[in-house]
Amino acid sequence: MSTSYQAIGWNRQKKIYDRIIFGFCVTYLSIFISSNLIFNAQVTFETLLIRSTSTLAVLLLHVILSIGPLTRLNKKFLPLLYNRRHLGVTMFFIAAIHGLFSIVQFHSLGSVNPLVSLFTSNTRFDSLPGFPFQALGFFALVIFFLMAITSHDFWLHNLSPKVWKTLHMFVYAAYFLVILHVMLGVIQFETNPVFVIILFVGTTTLIALHVLAGTREVHIDNIKFDLETDGFVKVCDVEDIEEDRAKMFCIGKERIAVYKIQGKLFAVNNVCKHQNGPLGEGKVLDGCITCPWHGYQYLPHNGQSPPPFKERVSTYDVMIDGTTVWVSPKPYPEGTERQGAIIAISSPVDKKNSETLILK
Ligand code: HEM
Ligand code: FES
Fold first, then answer.
1. Measured between alpha carbons, how far is residue 334 from residues 36, 59, 123, 208, 266 in Å?
2. Which residues of the chain have pLDDT under 50?
3. Ligand 1 atom 25: the closest Cα is on which residue?
4. pLDDT in tens, 321-339
5. pLDDT recorded at residue 348
6. Which of 138, 150, 181, 314 is the most buried (most CB within 10 A)?
7. Predicted pLDDT at 358
8. For domain 233-353, which architecture applies?
9. What digits encode the pLDDT tens for the residues 145-174?
10. pTM score, whole prediction
């Protein structure tokens, strides 16, 4: 959460995470290079560099794209999401080494400018086995570059979360380009089917994870709340919500997170102002609703980020009748103060904090 440009602050968790990424990359490259040297002594340094970095970049790309659906399916993966941008920038640098060395290796020895040669040395667009696959890799690399240079929150604020998010959705276009780049390239220089098999497993795993997570989201969105009284919708029982946690409800077009905090229920919009993270999957830290993705915070009673931050989300009315929770899906303007609903004595935990019961 920043009000102006701030250099990246490396906290302990980020440092550990970066060391793991670095250790993984070094281990992968060492194993790849040494096993190639053992089994294929004729291999050149350039080929080794091009192949080890390209396969590592593709592996990291699969991990990056798996993190989103994995966190939707299991909250244990949230630390990966929190640090995903470091992984993305690392992947870009590794892919850039591959691209750069490929251009040097295959396009720098002639009289034509290497970049011009990349697009003009092969123009067999009508041939599948001879397709100029390198251009596809180039366009994927451009997308990764744009994502890497705009990954800091400074750009998120300046471009607006909507534009930033749209730009970053292009990662799927880049993934598609990479798959075509590898498949059409492999046809030209590789007889071993292992590349195709690995890619097939990677792609199907990614598709399966996205379908699974998507189905779960759609299921939550499609829960019907038709018991309406005076504009309020019956959503759940007080006991269904854990202390300092929330339950998320999609009522009409509104995604609402209902939090239980110190004997009260508060309802705020579920969509975080940072990158649309699900506030209802977060928890209460220091009295604030804390987004599970990157830790943006909001005060439960008014949806405002604590000063000096300026983010705000909508608030909603919530009521308790007996032990039943009712929510009004009509949003108040972002940052509007709401008193919340006081939980009546119903469980030993709630007993401590409860006052009176708010009825409809
Ligand atoms: C300027 C951009 C790029 C150029 C010029 C380029 C060029 C090449 C070339 C010439 C090959 C065949 C290498 C060989 O004979 O072994 C290749 C293969 C490959 N490329 Fe790229 N590439 C680019 C971008 C990318 C990107 C962005 C990725 C993925 C993130 C990628 C992933 C791969 C993979 C996995 C292979 C197959 C394994 C290999 O042989 O290296 N490439 N690329
Ligand atoms: S989406 Fe990043 S903090 Fe909420």
1. 58, 41, 54, 37, 14
2. 2-8, 347-360
3. 137
4. 888 999 999 999 999 999 9
5. 46
6. 181
7. 41
8. 3-layer Sandwich (2.102)
9. 999 999 887 887 788 878 888 888 999 999
10. 0.77
Task: Tell me the CA–centroid distance for residue 274 and ligand 1, in Å.
Answer: 34
Report the nearest atom of ligand 2 relative to the CA of 279. Answer: 4
Domain boundaries, the chain: 12-220, 233-353
